[in-house]
Design goal:
Layout (H helix, E strand, L loop, with lengths): L8 E8 L3 E12 L6 H6 L4 E2 L7 E14 L2 E13 L2 E7 L2 E6 L4 E14 L2 E14 L8 E2 L6 E11 L3 E10 L16 E12 L2 E8 L35 E8 L4
Parallel strand pairs: 3-7
Antiparallel strand pairs: 1-2, 2-4, 4-5, 5-8, 6-7, 8-9, 9-10, 9-11, 11-12, 12-13, 13-14, 14-15
Length: 261
Amino acid sequence: EFGTFVSPRFAARASLGERWALRVAAGTGFFGPTPFVEEVEAIGLARLDLSSGLRAEQAVGGSIDLGGTVGSFELNATLFGSLLEDAVDLVGSAPGRVALANSAGTTRTGGVELLARYRAGPLHLTTTYTGLAATELPPAEATRRRVPYNPSHAIGVVGIWEREGRSRLGAELFFTGRQDTEDDPYRTTTPAYLIVGLLAEHRIGRFRLFLNLENLTDRRQSRYDSIVRPERAPDGRWTVNLWAPAEGRVVNGGIRWIVGS
């Protein structure tokens, strides 16, 4: 129905000495139009007018990856990019109704991912960074825009101190940068936010006591704006899209009983 597609793919790996390796990958892909997209899942099929004349999405992308070790550090860096043609988007068709349409231009995505791991005795530390730039040209639009709800910067730090078979203590920090919103009555750009979590576990005989503390900074979207819209959106929704956690602090703990040796 949508034609015949060829999807060639290529990947290669080269060793750079004993500790480093370079990987290169590229390929194409395609996806036939379907009404079961993320936006429709949120509003339901009842409001969707089935579209005709849609074209299949087609993409080409690639990445370059360099990884290796330096002493107790494991390092990895990845550059990636893709071009997506005929992306299927949701558009308004009538009051309270929506339809699907192909984008007017190419969706361009590019970025970098950095990873560093450190291991020294009982200490394990992992740090990640993602920088992302993505733009699109929605249907019936004349100018390009940044793809909504894609943070330009994201950082994660996870550290664990472990006394094998006895105790474990961990901490995590996740930073999410600013994001552009779409059809949000309260803001066009979101604030950056930081989430902090802690984990503790200790063994006493055959029992393990644990305590898990999530989102200690209590970052939740309702602290910035209401999640409920002041009036129904054109697609029928009463809520805005989520760009931060919906729940606040979460504390849970318990006791595990170890059976056997």
